[in-house]
Amino acid sequence: MMDAKTIVFGETAIDCLLQWLRVSGEPKDVHELLLQYLEILCKLVTEESE
User: Helix, strand, or coil here: 27?
Assistant: First the structure.
């Protein structure tokens, strides 16, 4: 469950995903993008809860 009070604005998962895509230097499949996005979201959520 997520509470809106705990949301912190700053670097978003989309920002991180775009950065990852730029660093890779090559087009990625939508499936690969989705998996990477989910990994980034998971990382951001676990960092916030610590």
Answer: coil
